[in-house]
Design brief:
alpha/beta; TIM Barrel; Aldolase_TIM; Ribul_P_3_epim; globular; D-ribulose-phosphate 3-epimerase activity
């Protein structure tokens, strides 16, 4: 089953609570929350207090994507704020196994993200430790970027490896997801699609989410 995780990076920041209610009514499966620190990526976004404030608006899964240096310092604060799933970047974690265990100890699910140029070998040794792998199809830091086609082969290779090992690990893709690219990433093996402008920029949010979910 394909799940859609709209990214509130493309939402109206002055109306985040209302935007989340709209997403839930429109059929979103998860809420993707991009956390940026201005160091790992050149932007600043949400901290734990914002996530805690938004938690009251929905029971949907909060999918918190830590695009930060020193993610170990933010795992517990975001878990307390209401994160159901916490994703860390392999590029920031020399002790990735320990970091994933730290996430699970909070009660949240654990995931690892890979930038477009980061090889799959970075996660080969932790595939049995994760609930999800996030493959970035743009370089992180900004919304509205163009999809990088070479990521399709990477997705397909990762899906093959997960299936070969009989692992029930979700495969998420984030960046440039729209009506044209959604069928391609689903065909490559992704089952969770993060979408920003394709949802928030659509005249009908519910129709946009349904279109992405049924794009295969």
């Amino acid at each position: 089953m394909i799940r859609i995780a709209p990214s509130i990076l493309s939402a109206d920041f002055a109306q985040l609570g209302t935007e989340i209610k709209k997403l839930e009514a429109a059929g979103a499966d998860m809420i993707h929350i991009d956390v940026m620190d201005g160091h790992f990526v050149p932007n600043l976004t949400f901290g734990p207090p914002v996530v805690a404030a938004l938690r009251q608006f929905t029971a949907l899964t909060f999918d918190v994507h830590l695009m930060v240096n020193n993610p170990q310092d933010l795992i517990a604060p975001f878990a307390r704020a209401g994160a159901d799933l916490i994703t860390v970047h392999a590029e920031t974690a020399p002790h990735l196994n320990r970091l994933l265990q730290n996430i699970k100890e909070t009660g949240s699910k654990a995931a690892v993200a890979l930038n477009p140029a980061t090889p799959l070998s970075m996660v080969e040794e932790v595939l049995t430790e994760v609930d999800m792998i996030l493959v970035m199809s743009v370089n992180p830091g900004f919304g509205g970027q163009k999809f990088i086609p070479s990521v399709l082969d990477k997705l397909a290779r990762l899906r093959h490896e997960l299936d070969k090992r009989k692992l029930t690990v979700d495969l998420q893709v984030d960046g440039g997801i729209n009506a044209a690219t959604a069928p391609q990433v689903i065909a490559a093996g992704a089952n969770i699609l993060v979408a920003g402008s394709a949802v928030f920029g659509a005249p009908d949010m519910k129709a946009a989410i349904a279109m992405l979910r049924n794009a295969e």
